[in-house]
Amino acid sequence: MSPLRIAFLHPDLGIGGAERLVVDAALGLQNLGHTVDLYTSHHDPTHCFEETRDGTLHIHHVVPPFPRSIRGKFHILFAHARQLHLTLHLLLRGGPSYDVYFVDQLSTCIPFLRTFGKTRVVFYCHFPDKLLANGEFVEGKFAKMKGGILKRLYRIPMDWVEELTTRQADIILANSKFTSQVFQTYFRSIPRVPRVVYPGINISAYETAVDWSDPDIVQVISDRPTLLSLNRFEKKKNVALALAAFAQMKTGSTRFVIGGGYDHRLEDNIQTLAALVRTAELHSLTFNIITPASSNTPIPPFKCQLVEPDILFVLNFTTGQRSALLTSSSTLCLLYTPANEHFGIVPVEGMLCGLPVLACDSGGPTESILDSPESERTGWLCRPDAAVWADVLSKIVALSKEEREALSERAKSRAKTLFGMQTMARDIEDALQEASTLGPVEGMAILVLI
């Protein structure tokens, strides 16, 4: 097979699971000999994955003339506008042509890329936006549109555009069986079943020696027994569940490190951190809040305890900090709190590093984590109840050396076999190659929008 020229379109190259997937997919495809360019409407070098700022990947940051929102409203409308601006730049810039486009999160651009770019498109569905807009999705319950009459009227055309443009992708991928099933339920006009391509991780990145003298790493590592949570500071991620469980089971010098992406421009991030701080204070737990030396994120003015806090909040952790926390011998467990998560790459990262993982018994983690039989266990899947989690955490902390080592080997093996970056890259490569062999795009797909 000949190498492909591939253009990725991703709305915001920040720090998150979707961004990690895009970065690892691009890296994997580059390693397979393909040429990859990433186009985005937002890329902050102080709030991104290192591969997007150190020259490893070729990033095209096209600054849009539109805001993210107006007074916290109209997010999806401006997201559509920003992506169309990015698409216009890509199609009119007079630069290199591509064999195929890889689009994720927003599907607005698909008919334009096919009609005016005359190029096939592979769309990767993380989760339908029409469901994300309604807040937390509960498996098994048909989602009804939430909000007042104005929001409902506003969402009708937005949801229609999402389904219509998604339908025009040449190949549709999904990040889990869970997402694929939800897609089929809520996008009823699309007869195709999305092909599942699990997110993969760069295994070698976790096998690189950690520089334990790095000041950023020194400030997060401790000899104290450590419980770890890595997630964005968003309410829907429900880190409060893990904090409440920690408060119930805390014994001796055990500490809890909560790290994740934090954007001081986003009200949800600000309020979520504040709520976690209030919860810590309610349980008389001390805390500190830190950022890497390279970060320009302002630390909110809470009353922190700088020495030996019970809880350490790490805003916008570096790759080195993440690896150090996941591989430290003092880290006893990784807690992953979102319910009905679309996939969840963090549990896979934990398993790859040999950590026991505690997650909710719904969504993507039920596909990545093995809870039973006990002889094959790589983690625990429990209902989101703080008392239940506290009980399980006590058992995990009390694991014998032999039990911990056996579970660690099982977890590493499962992560490497099913969720490696090479496996994901090969699966995405197959889809891109298939799309590119479909031939030129004929007709005016854009007419279906009129």
From TrEMBL:
UniProt-listed Pfam families: Glyco_transf_4, Glycos_transf_1
Q: Catalysed reaction per UniProt?
A: an alpha-D-Man-(1->3)-beta-D-Man-(1->4)-beta-D-GlcNAc-(1->4)-alpha-D-GlcNAc-diphospho-di-trans,poly-cis-dolichol + GDP-alpha-D-mannose = an alpha-D-Man-(1->3)-[alpha-D-Man-(1->6)]-beta-D-Man-(1->4)-beta-D-GlcNAc-(1->4)-alpha-D-GlcNAc-diphospho-di-trans,poly-cis-dolichol + GDP + H(+); a beta-D-Man-(1->4)-beta-D-GlcNAc-(1->4)-alpha-D-GlcNAc-diphospho-di-trans,poly-cis-dolichol + GDP-alpha-D-mannose = an alpha-D-Man-(1->3)-beta-D-Man-(1->4)-beta-D-GlcNAc-(1->4)-alpha-D-GlcNAc-diphospho-di-trans,poly-cis-dolichol + GDP + H(+)
Q: Which InterPro entries match?
A: ALG2 (IPR027054), Glyco_trans_1 (IPR001296), Glyco_trans_4-like_N (IPR028098)
Q: Where is the Glycosyltransferase subfamily 4-like N-terminal domain?
A: 15-204
UniProt-recorded Gene Ontology molecular function terms: GDP-Man:Man(1)GlcNAc(2)-PP-Dol alpha-1,3-mannosyltransferase activity; GDP-Man:Man(2)GlcNAc(2)-PP-Dol alpha-1,6-mannosyltransferase activity
Q: Give the record's pathway.
A: Protein modification; protein glycosylation
Location(s) in or outside the cell:
Endoplasmic reticulum membrane
The record's EC number reads 2.4.1.132, 2.4.1.257
Q: Where is the Glycosyl transferase family domain?
A: 313-413
Any one GO CC term of this protein is: endoplasmic reticulum membrane
Q: Which UniProt keywords apply?
A: Endoplasmic reticulum, Glycosyltransferase, Membrane, Transferase, Transmembrane, Transmembrane helix
Q: Where is the signal peptide?
A: none
Q: Which domain of life is it from?
A: Eukaryota
Main localisation, per the record?
A: endoplasmic reticulum
Q: Could you say which protein family the record assigns here? A: Belongs to the glycosyltransferase group 1 family.
Family annotation (PANTHER family): ALPHA-1,3/1,6-MANNOSYLTRANSFERASE ALG2, ALPHA-1,3_1,6-MANNOSYLTRANSFERASE ALG2
Q: What does this protein do?
A: Mannosylates Man(2)GlcNAc(2)-dolichol diphosphate and Man(1)GlcNAc(2)-dolichol diphosphate to form Man(3)GlcNAc(2)-dolichol diphosphate.
Task: Report the protein name in the record.
Answer: Alpha-1,3/1,6-mannosyltransferase ALG2
> What organism does the record attribute this protein to?
Pleurotus ostreatus (strain PC15) (Oyster mushroom)
The record lists the lineage as: Eukaryota, Fungi, Dikarya, Basidiomycota, Agaricomycotina
